[in-house]
Amino acid sequence: MKVRKAIIPAAGLGTRFLPATKAVPKEMIPLLDKPAIQYIVEEAVASGIEEILIITGRGKEAIENHFDISYELEDTLEKKEQKELLQIIQPLSHMANIYFVRQRMPKGLGHAVGCAKDFVGDEPFAVLLGDDLFHCSEKPCIKQLIEQYEKHEASVFALLNVAREHVDKYGVISGHKVDEGLYNIDDLVEKPSIAEAPSNLAVMGRYVFTPKIFEMIEMTPPEKGGEIQLTDAMKKLTAFEKMYGYIFNGKRYDTGYLLGYLEAVVDFALRREDIKDDFFALLKEKL
Ligand code: G1P
Questions:
Q1: Fewer CB atoms inside 10 A, N or C side of the chain?
Q2: Stated pTM of the model
Q3: pLDDT digits over 243-262, tens only?
Q4: 71 belongs to a structural domain
Q5: Mean pLDDT of 6-16
Q6: Residue 111, number of CB atoms within 10 A of its CB
């Protein structure tokens, strides 16, 4: 079955980026001149996704406004004949069918994905986490996973080999290699201690799931802090269906912390045709 739908969880409080995220959703923090969430929506659309559900929460209205028609702005730009600016903002409201639902309580990533059950129905679907941005020169990361899903008809998520000292920031797998870059998952642990991590292969924020994951989420009890972990529901799913992890081709940026964000800004600026030469000269001067 074709993967047509995607979920973008965007209900998190963004505490790692305070004070910027006190009044502005972290997903709206710009990377160059685009809010982070626009890169995520563009990746989904470029991968053939037609319908997107963004899971929001209180204080996230700016995300809805960003993907809506801004009548006053468009009317003003039209009257002033500012066609170039119109070309930047008009496509935003037509990129895909974008819907919104609120996660009313901060009950974790698993619960946030669970909020999409009615929207998804009985189809496979993609999940894209906003803090993880990817640069993949051949194919978007989620497209690579969709292709793996189509080949194996089983849930699949992005994997990255990380340094041992970083395994405690991620979901970590144990599994066996079945093909180039492809691992059949035996077990998953969310944020293990460095000593206990079963491998250095960490889950990155791109997933394609069969709809069976919703039953697993419903069966997953919250942790001590009241959060339902997506990783725990994924672990349950391995008892019923095959699940794969795939080492994607490309570079991943963790924009959820300051240095990762800065690395993304520098790399994205150095790749952008209109500014890359001037920016390179500026960096050289600074260094
Ligand atoms: C989430 C997931 C984790 C995954 C990570 C990827 O964690 O729970 O399994 O490895 O995203 O970025 P978070 O970064 O939201 O704490």
A1: C
A2: 0.95
A3: 999 999 999 999 988 999 99
A4: yes
A5: 92
A6: 25
**pLDDT (tens digit, 9 = 90+) per residue, 222-242?**
998 899 999 999 999 999 999
- Determine the Cα–Cα distance for residues 18 and 16; give it in Å rounded to an integer: 6
| Domain span at 232 | 5-156+204-256
Q: pLDDT by residue (tens digit) across 86-107?
A: 888 888 778 889 999 999 988 9
CB of 53 within 6 A of ligand 1: the answer is: no
CATH number for the domain harbouring residue 240:
3.90.550.10
- Does the beta carbon of 132 sit less than 6 angstroms from any atom of ligand 1? yes
- CA–centroid distance, 98 to ligand 1, in Å, is 24
Residue at token pair 């960003």? 66
**Whether the CB of 190 sits within 6 Å of ligand 1:** yes
% the chain with pLDDT above 90:
83
On the question of pLDDT at 6 being above 90, the answer is yes
Report how far ligand 1's centroid is from the alpha carbon of 222 (Å). Answer: 16
Q: For residue 170, give the ligand 1 atom closest to its CA.
A: 10
Does 167 contact ligand 1 (Cβ within 6 A)? no
Taking the C-alpha atoms of residue 14 and residue 192, their distance in angstroms, rounded to an integer, is: 22
**Assigned token pair, 204:** 């990155």
Q: Does 205 contact ligand 1 (Cβ within 6 A)? A: yes
Q: Does 149 fall in a domain?
A: yes
Could you tell me if residue 39 is inside a domain?
yes
For residue 106, what pLDDT is reported? 86
Number of domains in the chain: 1
H or E element: which one contains 28?
none
Distance CA(191)–CA(257), nearest Å, equals 17
Residue 157 pLDDT: 98
Q: Residue 202 and residue 174: Cα distance in Å, rounded? A: 10
Inside any domain, residue 113: yes
Q: Please give the average per-residue pLDDT across 125-131, as a whole number.
A: 95
Q: In sequence order, what are the residues at sequence separation of 6 or more whose Cβ sits closer than 8 angstroms to the Cβ of residue 131?
A: 26, 205, 254, 255, 256
